[in-house]
C-alpha cells in the first residue's frame, strides 16, 4: 500500500468511527475542516493515529496548518522516525494532469456548475443547446457561451441583493434565456424555482393563485420573467410580500458588475421542483446537487448515454422531465440538445418528428398523450420522407402509459424506420429527481394482461389471456435505476410478494430529503429510510407495474377502483373531448360510502345527444369498473382542471363538484383580473399591518436587550461570583419574559443533579439568554476565543465565569481541553455548544468533540439540552427579533462508559440523536 493510500485509509477509518460506520471516500485534496468536518481536537486524534500507523513523530506546526490530506502527506514527509519506525515516507503525489477528452462525462464534478465549467474548459466551442424555431435553428449556445451569459445574470442578481441560499423563481418560456437564467441563479448562490407562465386566459385566476402559493411557500425573493409576462408577474409580486423584485434577463445583465464567487457544496439545494399538484397543492421537492447528479448519472448508465447521442425535446422546462431529464442529462453527458417550445409541438406535432429526422435525434421523451397524438392525428403527408431510424430511445413517462398507445404509435411510425424496441415506458417522480425505473435498453414495451376483477376485489395481479373480457393490460416500467430500490407494501408497511398490489416505496441517492417548508407532508413522505411514492402498483419478475395514484383510487364496497381505463374509454366516445375526462370518488354522507362520479367535457349540446352520451358512459362504467357510476356530469369545454403538464387534477375537480361549482359559468377574464388585483391589495394591507406590529415588537425587544447589556458591566463589578451569577440570571429572566411570548421548560430537575457538562444545540444568539435564565447560577459557559479579543467583553464574560477555547490552533486547543477538564473535576458545571457556530439555515450540524472528551476524561455526566424555537426568535444574519414560543427540553444525564476517545465518540453520537429528536430540526449529514 502506498503512503497516500495508507494515510487516506487512516482518515477514513477515523471518520467511519465518528459517523457511526459510514464515511465518504476521502481524496487527497478534500478540505479537512469544511469537507470532512475534522475540528481541532479531532485533528489531534488523527495526528496520533498517523504517528502510530507510520511510526513517526509529526511536526505539530505543519499538522496545525494542514488544510487537506495532501498537506498531511507533506507533514509525514518531514516527520522524524521513532524507534523501530519504518524508514522513509513516500513523496507527496502530485495532481494528475487534466483529462482533455470530451467523450467521458465529468464523474468527479459534485455540482451542476462544476459540470458546466468542466465542459466549458474541455469543449468550449461545442454547441450545447440549439433552439428550434419553425423547424430551423433560431439560436445556439456553446458550453462556454452558456457559462459566460450565466455569469452576467449571476452578477446582476448579486447586485440586486440576492444572498446565497435565497430562492429565485423563473417564469420564462422555452428559450436560451431560460438556461442562462437558471445557471445564473446557481452561480449567484441562489436556488432556482421554475414556474410556468399562464397558458389559458380563461383560467388566469386559478393559475395565478397556484403560482402565488408556490412563490410564498418557496420564499422567493426575485422573480425573473419575460417582458410579455411582466403584467402577470407584477400581480404576483403584489400578492406575495416576500417577493422583492421582478426582473427580466435583459435587466439583470444591465445591473451586472463583477461576480463574487460563491462556493456551493454537493449537499446544497440546487432546485426546488414543485410537484404538478394533480392530487392537491403543489409541494416543493428539495433536490440537492448530489440528488440531481446521482439521477442523471443513473439514467445515463441505464440508457448508455454519451456525447455521440442527440437529444430532441419539446418538453416544458418548468417540468422535471424537460428540465432534469432532457437538459441536465444532456449537459452532464455532453449531448447536443435541440429544444423547441411546447406550443410549437402542440400547434403542429409533426415538428417533433421532423426535428428528430433533421438532426438525427437518438433520444427523446414525452408523456403518453404526445405519442397518442403521433398515432392518431398525423396525416400520411406529414410522415412521408421521414427517417426515424436513429431514434433509439423513445421515453414515455410523466403520466399513465397505455398499452394501446404503444402499439398504435409503433405501427404508425414503423414505415419511417422507427424501431418499436426503442419505445421505453418509464416511471419517475419529482421526489426522486425525475427517473426511478427504466426497462432494459432495446427490449421494447412489455405488457402484462391481468384480471381486472381480481385486482379490484383482492389486490391480486392474476395473469389472464389477452382476449378475456375482464383482461386489463398494464405496461411494465422496468427495473429500478442502478443504486435505487423499490418495494411494494401493504397498509401496515409490510412488504408484499410478487403480483400483490400495494403502495410503492423507494429509496436511493436521488431521493429528496423532503418538501420545502412543509413538515407535515415531509413526515407523511417517509417510512423510515423509505419514501412513499404516492402510487399503487405491483412487481412481477422484478419489474414495476403501476395501476393508480393513491389519491385517485376509489374504494367502494371494499373494492379498489382504478379510474384510468374508464377515463380513456369515455374520452374515446364521439361527442366527448378526449383527455378531458375525470373519474373520482366522493363521500356519500348518508351512507358513508364513496360514490363514483364521471366528469366529462362534451362537444355536443343537444339534449338527445347528451342523454345518449350518459347512457353509453353508464354502460362503460359497469363494463370496466364492475359498478355503475353514481353521477355522470357532462360539462362545457375547459371545465376539467389540469396541471401545467396536462395531468387531470382529480382532487380539484372533486372539490368543484362537492361545492356545486361545475355548472357555474366561468367568470369573464376581466373580472378574474379585477379579483386578483383586489386580493393582492388586501394581502398587501394585511402584510403592512403585520409588519408594523413586528417592527414594534422588534423595537421593544432591542430595548430590553440594550437594558440587559448595559447592566452587565454593573453586575460584573459585584464582589462575589455567586452574586454576579444570580444577578445575571435574574436579568436574563426579565429580558426573556419580555422577548419570548411563551417559554416552556421540560426536565428542569435534571439540571440540579450536581456538576455536569451541559450540551445544547446552537440555533440563535438568543440561546445564551434563555439558558442563562434557566440554568443553575453556578453554571458557566464555554465560548470561542474570538469573543475575548475585545478587552471589555473579555473582562465581563470572564467575571461571569465564561471559559474560552481556541478552535484553530491544535496546541492551544489541547491546552484548553485540559483546562476545561480540570475545571469540571474541580466542581464546575460547563455549557457547550458543540456545533461550534450557528447558521441561518435550520439543521443540527456536526458536533465537535471538546465537550465529550472533557466529560469522558473528567468522568462526569453529560446533560443534553434541546432548544426549539430560538432560531425563529432571532435568526442568524437578521437583526429583527420575532415573536415565537421557545421550548427547552432537558434530557436525563448520560454517563460516559470510559475515558477514551471511543467513549467520547459514543457520547457524542448518543447526544446528537437525542437532541435531534426534540429540537425540531433534522440531523444533517457530517
Please describe what this structure looks like:
Strands 30-36-35-31-34-32-33 form a 7-stranded mixed beta sheet, with helices on both faces. Strands 20, 21, 22, 23 and 24 form a 5-stranded antiparallel beta sheet that branches. The protein has a 4-stranded mixed beta sheet with strand order 4-3-12-11, sandwiched between helices. The chain is built from 30 helices and 36 strands. It has 926 residues and is α/β, with parallel strands linked by helices. The longest helix has 48 residues, at 669-716. Strand 23 (530-540) and strand 24 form a beta hairpin. Among the domains are: 3-81, Orthogonal Bundle (Non-ribosomal Peptide Synthetase Peptidyl Carrier Protein, Chain A), CATH 1.10.1200; 711-919, Glycerol-3-phosphate (1)-acyltransferase (3-Layer(aba) Sandwich). The radius of gyration is 32 Å and the shape is globular.
Write a brief caption for the model.
With 926 residues, the protein is α/β, with parallel strands linked by helices.
The fraction of residues in strands falls at: 15-25%
Structural class: alpha/beta
Strand order of the largest sheet: 30-36-35-31-34-32-33
* Main sheet properties: 7 strands, mixed
> Strand tally, please?
36
Helix content: 25-40%
User: Which architecture of one domain would the CATH scheme give at its second level?
Assistant: 3-Layer(aba) Sandwich
Task: State the fourth-level CATH superfamily of one domain.
Answer: Glycerol-3-phosphate (1)-acyltransferase
Number of helices: 30
Separation, N- and C-terminal Cα atoms: 28 Å
CATH topology of one domain: Glycerol-3-phosphate (1)-acyltransferase
The whole-angstrom Rg is 32 Å
User: At the first level of CATH, what is the class of one domain?
Assistant: Alpha Beta
- Residue windows where pLDDT falls under 50 for at least 5 positions: 84-102
Q: What shape does the CA trace take?
A: globular
Question: Averaged pLDDT, please?
Answer: 86
